[in-house]
Design a protein that fits this description.
The structure holds 2 protein chains of 2 kinds. Chain A is built from 1 helix and 13 strands. By secondary structure, chain A is mainly beta. Chain B contains no helices and 12 strands. Classes of the chains: A mainly beta, B mainly beta. Chains A and B meet through strand 1 of A and strand 1, strand 9 and strand 10 of B.
Amino acid sequence: MSHNAIEINNNTPDRAGDITATAAIGYARFGQGESSAYSNSPATGMSSGDSYYFYDTSPTSTITGLSFTTTSDWCTSFTLPAGDYIVQWAFHVENTASSWHQKLQLMQGATSYGGCFIGATSNAEQSNGWGTAYLSISSDTSYDWDLSTGANIDTVANQGTTPSQYGVFYIWKVG
Amino acid sequence: MSHNIISLNGETPSVDGTLAFNENHDYAAKVTDLNHSGSPNNAQVGDYAQIRDASGAGTADASYFSFIDADASAIKSNTSYSMGFTLEAVGVFYVELVMKFIADANDAIVIQIVDSANNPVGPKAYYGNTVREYIYPTTITALIDNTTAGSNYYYRVQEVTNTPGQPTPNSGSSYLKCIKL
């Protein structure tokens, strides 16, 4: 800003004094369809309680104070500062049978903040595969991802690049 | 603006000087009133999947695939089907797409939003391997940093298993929205 006396989100008034400004909503994305074998991640298993990892070589964030912790571009956790957020996530895994399913939960320590379900079971359990969580945080808090209930899921070695190509989570700062 | 010395997104201060902030968040584009998706039949890898504007059935009208503002527009394959979208403005967009396909037994299909050179700009989305006749909608997303105005993006079939194909006639199963952040 130079001669203008006021600006909002880098928007300054025109000669009539009118300002047009768009709200600067904070957002972040981790996962953009890139390919890396899941065996490159820190994953040790595909059973309930095992950690799950998303992949992104260039994650995007405009949320001040948000940090991703990664190992070889696999997200092992993320930390959010105080505020209100919506997190949404989706994933996909290789299976070993036509009837299979898997649930993935957003975790803060041992507490689940919601899960999403994917799979193909007999004539039931349809889902759009997305999870959504609303988080209201009073101080820096870290989250990660754990596999939960599952059946007929292939091994880490046999996952290939599927988790990296399908997995994504978005974070929206809403307050 | 008239007597006020300042306004923000069209809002002027009240008598006590309070200035309301109408966020005016740029809901840049939204295809409205879509009712089904899925063309082409017997999809093959490399095809562009399609969504269809319900109001466009059987007629030719340029108003189909209406968008709220000029930041995006539909790429049409004919008068009532769209196989992608154009981001007319430079900026970051969150794009969300829901489609629907008919499939038998173990049919499956993978859709991904790609740029004009078929480079993926978001994660893959998977439909299928169910024993249901209809594969229910899932959600395809991308966060696109559109650095060149007028860039085109498409809904590309990336993988198929068996023969997923025809659009379903059920209402309310498809939509596209592009939100300029």
